[in-house]
Design brief:
The chain is α+β, with helices and mostly antiparallel strands. It has 2 domains: about 180 residues, 2-Layer Sandwich (Alpha-Beta Plaits); about 110 residues, Tumour Suppressor Smad4 (Sandwich), CATH 2.60.200. Helices cover about 20% and strands about 35% of the residues. The protein is built from 5 helices and 19 strands. Strands 1, 2, 3, 4, 5, 6, 7 and 8 form an 8-stranded mixed beta sheet that branches. A 6-stranded antiparallel beta sheet has the order 10-9-19-18-15-16, with no helix packed on it. Strands 12-11-13-14-17 form a 5-stranded mixed beta sheet, with no helix packed on it. Helix 1 crosses helix 2.
């Protein structure tokens, strides 16, 4: 039976450059570093009356009953992470995005257009920045609105109307007033990297010149998998702001096993891939799938 919609603020916080962290320090240390900051962010969320919905690799998704609580939590997240630097390790930065609107709660997870918009603007946001929407701006008191500025309009796939995006000036030193199209707001490129996919005799490479791949049962897919558990167009892989993002759009979900043995599943969700591993379309690893897509992220040699 469909659940009634609830109005909430949905916030994503994403560790920037996690693929580079795994490359530099190796899987074991990188996992510890990412876990440390995920735990720190989760504690900050709880302190601001937020609910942690889930972690997605190097990203957290959470909800708040009001836009104002989400606003304060977003600022606190940036302050906490920027103030927590580890000796002998490169600085860790995050980007935060949040949106306000109706969501559907199904068994503790949240779905709907509000979630999609929040995830979209987070992916577009630069390190150390906070982005939000007009829907949030309209819900805030005047003193918090004064800390925001509209910076651009975004086109979200599948939507006709534009989304007005605002930046939150959480840092007193952040006096920038330029639009996101100017380099000061763009996430820096993370090098010339490629994601190589292999399945039986098929190989497909995602890189700067070819940024999107479709996985599924349909023969027209970039990687066509011979499995009844796979949907015709099961999952999309995309190179976005230096990260390789997999988005499930199937009935049975997409299941990933990383090279370090960690396993995770997504269903109508996104996940950042890192290192190496295998992708199973529609079958969990507990079901011992045989039709696996191998992936590996590597540096392209010019």
């Amino acid at each position: 039976m469909p659940q009634p919609a609830t109005k909430l603020a949905i916030l994503f916080a994403d560790i920037c450059g996690s693929s580079a962290i795994y490359d530099k320090y190796g899987d074991a240390i990188a996992r510890q570093l990412v876990a440390r900051y995920i735990d720190s962010m989760s504690n900050t969320i709880y302190q601001h009356q937020g609910t942690l919905i889930k972690t997605i690799g190097d990203e957290i998704m959470c909800s708040f009953p009001s836009a104002e609580e989400a606003f304060h939590a977003a600022c606190a997240l940036q302050v906490a992470v920027e103030g927590d630097k580890l000796e002998n390790y490169d600085p860790i930065h995050i980007r935060v995005g949040f949106h306000m609107g109706d969501v559907i709660n199904e068994e503790g997870d949240l779905y709907g257009d509000t979630v999609n918009v929040a995830a979209h603007i987070t992916a577009e946001t630069r390190a150390c920045k906070i982005a939000t929407t007009l829907a949030v701006f309209d819900e805030l008191p005047e003193n918090l609105r004064a800390k925001m500025q509209q910076i651009y309009r975004s086109n979200l796939k599948g939507r006709i109307e534009h989304i007005d995006i605002y930046q939150v000036n959480w840092n007193e030193d952040d006096t920038s007033r330029t639009r996101i199209g100017i380099p000061a707001y763009r996430k820096p490129q993370e090098g010339n990297r490629a994601l190589i996919l292999r399945y039986r005799d098929q190989t497909f490479t995602i890189e700067n010149q070819k940024k999107i791949a479709m996985l599924g049962r349909e023969k027209s897919c970039s990687i066509a998998v011979n499995s009844d558990f796979a949907s015709r167009q099961h999952a999309q892989l995309e190179l976005r702001f230096g990260k390789f993002i997999i988005t499930d759009q199937s009935v049975n979900g997409t299941h990933i096993r990383f090279g370090d043995g960690r396993m995770t599943s997504i269903n109508s969700e996104t996940l950042v891939l890192h290192g190496t591993g295998y992708i199973s379309l529609g079958q969990t690893y507990a079901d011992n799938p045989t039709e696996l897509i191998q992936f590996a992220i590597s540096t392209v040699v010019d």
